[in-house]
Amino acid sequence: MNPKDRYQKERAEAKEQRQIHIIQSAKAVFLRKGIERSTMNDIAEEANIGIATLFRYFPKKEQLARLIVIQVLNETRDVFNQISDMQGTCLDKMDQLLDYFISFMNKDSNLGVIIFEDLLNGAMHSSLDVAQIEEINVVQRSISAEFNKIIMQGERDGTVRHDIQPSELLTTVINAFGLFSSKLSLHQNIPMLEADVEPRQQLMLMKQMILHYIQPPLCHEGEI
Predict the structure, then answer these.
(1) What stretches of 107-149 adopt beta strand conformation (E)?
(2) pLDDT exceeding 70 applies to what percent of the chain?
(3) Would the pTM count as exceeding 0.85?
(4) I want to staple 181 with a disulfide (CB 3.0 to 4.6 A). Which of 83, 101, 111, 154 is the partner?
């Protein structure tokens, strides 16, 4: 490799590493403050770079936010895909999905919760154009498609109750559990009651309640 090519290669690699560093710094800021309340100055300080340098890489905070949102949603899609493709019954896969939501209690997973909250309340959508919103929607639809595979298995394998439409039943419990786990993750350090139950224990208890409820009634009779 001649000196000019080597220089160009090293320059491109340095630029890529700087970009990765900025993205990691933005994730740390978003984790502390949320996307909406974070500023470009916050991100520049976290990355230990000048604000002008940051703007050369990402002219707007929304560009950074969109990139990170897509990354986190793709990670979620991959988890849903792994679970939908695993060996086991629909009930086994619901068990794994509930465990995934319980993992939101881990500090490293809180960014996904914050992004989920921002998407839910429209904070992200208000700062994106139609094409950017559609890019996010495409990934969200792919997550739904993976979950639909699990629902379809539940309609066939008999491991979930059928007196309630499986699609309605499983969608409702996953949405409810996802919201509950997100709220507990965000507020786990704020005691709600004097004799409060530890958040993870609340989620484990609710998980068992859900798994018991979605099983066919005959399974419950067999336990007596």
Answers:
(1) none
(2) 83
(3) no
(4) 101
